[in-house]
Amino acid sequence: MSTGKVIEVTICGGGNGTHASAAVISRTKEFKVNVFTRRPKEWSKNLVGITKGSSWESRGNYVANLNNITNNPSEISTTDVWIISGPAHIHYGLLKSIAPYVKPGAFVGTLFAQGGFEWMCREVFGQRLSQLTMFGLFNIPFICKSDEYGKSVRIIGPKDQLLVAIEPATRMTETVKLIEKMWTIPTVTLPNFLTLTLTPSNQIIHPARIYGVFQNWDGKTPYDPKSIPLFYEDMDEYSAHQLELLDSEIQLIKEGIMGKYPQYDLTYVLPLRQRIIKQYGKQVSDPTNMYTTFRTNQGYKTVRIPVKEVQGGVIPNIDGRIFWEDVPYGLMILRQIADFVGVHTPNINRMIRWHQQFMNKQYILPNDELNQSLLAETGVPSRYGITNLDQLIGRHSTSHPTQSRL
């Protein structure tokens, strides 16, 4: 990475992660930060990242100094680092939008690589990927929530550590330095992108919690808004148990892969509670069990369950990312990999089945088979031509050593 050169960063998408990353990364003149969004007119170049109540409160607020906010990627083709934000089910579309304008030597990464980001990049860029550096974060750098769209964001729970997968391996050292400089969080490399796909995170946390709260919902009757608990700090023991059931099935998938490929490194596919404690550290005041870990994590405070206002109260937001990201681009991916391994996942099946009834979809058929006619609408490996475990593990990187031009 060349010293003294201003690094141009473009964050793609208009969600919470874009808001917070734009504020944090543009804090220094080392970076020139753009935002690629469908709603550029609603953004302020002086977006504020509010840290009050978080472990970063002593730093004060972050005030952005954004360079360009646009819906036209041709205006930002000089970008050195492209960061895909937003839910996994829009990643492919974002990558297709920017692909013609990504210059050789650029970095292409994502805040959250759980939904098959690596497979998407291989399909979108093809052989051009050999000229790029690809990276994916294990988890978004912070729990955050836009306060006023395009104007301010609350940074609620910064991670104590970031984990990242990088290809090609020759770019690891430079990419880690770049990530640490952008988000000011110590960063550790992961051995492969499959670790990110299998990590127990949003794809089990969100569905389990929504199920725990709304399991008896008839799809119509509204709730009193005052009855809706907070997402994490009001965690109940039933929701925590649902999480444990899903988490255990991810570990069974991991064990099945390791049984057939013992040399393949999935060390960082940790049990969920262990992963949270590792990433949030002392922010978790009582790590006794899953229930207490969620309820006492400072980084999870004040986050609300997404609901939609209707006549007579509120209902779960069935149009939001918890349904349309975490099921087709989370649980469905886990389920197909389980099929590759030969592992039965009754709890993942049950969770998909409960959510799909409100999505007007049938991803899983009554006989527990995957609905082949809907797989193209999901992020499962077979969508990208990966149809068995050998292909999943043996897919060779298209990346080769190349100097990323910073």
3D structure, described in words:
This is NAD/NADP octopine/nopaline dehydrogenase, alpha-helical domain protein. GO terms for molecular function: oxidoreductase activity. Pfam families: Octopine_DH. There is one protein chain. Helix 2 (91-98) runs parallel beside helix 3. The strands form 3 sheets. The protein has an 8-stranded mixed sheet with strand order 5-2-1-6-7-8-11-12, sandwiched between helices. Strands 4-3-10-9 form a 4-stranded mixed sheet, covered by helices on one side. It has a two-stranded antiparallel ribbon with strand order 13-14. It is an alpha/beta fold and 406 residues long. The chain contains 13 helices and 14 strands. It has helices at 16-25, 91-98, 117-125, 172-183, 194-198, 202-214, 237-260, 272-280, 290-295, 321-324, 327-341, 346-359, 389-394; strands at residues 7-12, 31-36, 48-50, 62-63, 68-70, 81-84, 107-110, 133-137, 142-148, 152-158, 162-167, 187-189, 307-310, 313-316. It is globular, with a radius of gyration of 20 Å. It folds into 2 domains: 7-190, NAD(P)-binding Rossmann-like Domain (Rossmann fold); 197-394, N-(1-d-carboxylethyl)-l-norvaline Dehydrogenase, domain 2, CATH 1.10.1040.
